[in-house]
Write a structure and sequence with these properties.
Layout: H1 8-22, H2 26-42, H3 54-58, H4 66-70, H5 79-89, E1 102-104, E2 113-114, E3 117-123, E4 126-130
Antiparallel strand pairs: 1-4, 2-3, 3-4
Helix pairs in contact: 1-2, 1-5, 2-5
Length: 142
């Protein structure tokens, strides 16, 4: 059962975002990027109180994703990424992105905090950062 409202266009948008941000990190890396996206739609806190749809999350500005801002969000969604997007829309979560609202690809090791949010772990090239339950309880609800 979906944890956010969606339409087929939004499934493909999320799939494109997952591919653009983490194709090099494989299936699990793309799923984690999808977790961050779905968490942003569900979050009613911090930088995301007005984000209520997958479309608004994908194109959020400022504070959006590098793939959108830097122009590598041009590849279409393949069936493989569409299937992965459906998994995160249906509520599957993957550590360390389980409750994360941010990720980035550092040149070196992951910092303990990023913009005041705690590092929840690293997967391949990306570090993930999660708010506390006190700062953003809505991310922890489903």
């Amino acid at each position: 059962m979906a944890v956010v409202a969606y339409n087929e266009e939004e499934v493909k948008l999320l799939a494109r975002l997952m591919r653009a941000e983490a194709e090099g990190d494989g299936q699990l890396g793309m799923l984690m990027v999808g977790n961050v996206g779905i968490n942003r739609v569900r979050a009613d806190c911090l930088d995301f109180p007005q984000i209520r749809t997958i479309r608004s999350m994908v194109f959020q500005s400022p504070g959006g994703f590098e793939a959108i801002q830097k122009g590598y969000f041009y590849q279409r969604a393949r069936q493989r990424e569409i299937n992965l997007a459906r998994r995160v829309i249906n509520g599957e979560r993957f550590h360390p992105a389980t409750y994360s609202l941010w990720f980035f690809r550092p040149d070196g090791s992951c910092p303990a905090q990023w913009f005041g949010q705690w590092n929840s772990g690293r997967f391949k090239s990306h570090c993930f950062f999660s708010p506390t339950q006190t700062d953003c309880p809505s991310v922890y609800r489903y």
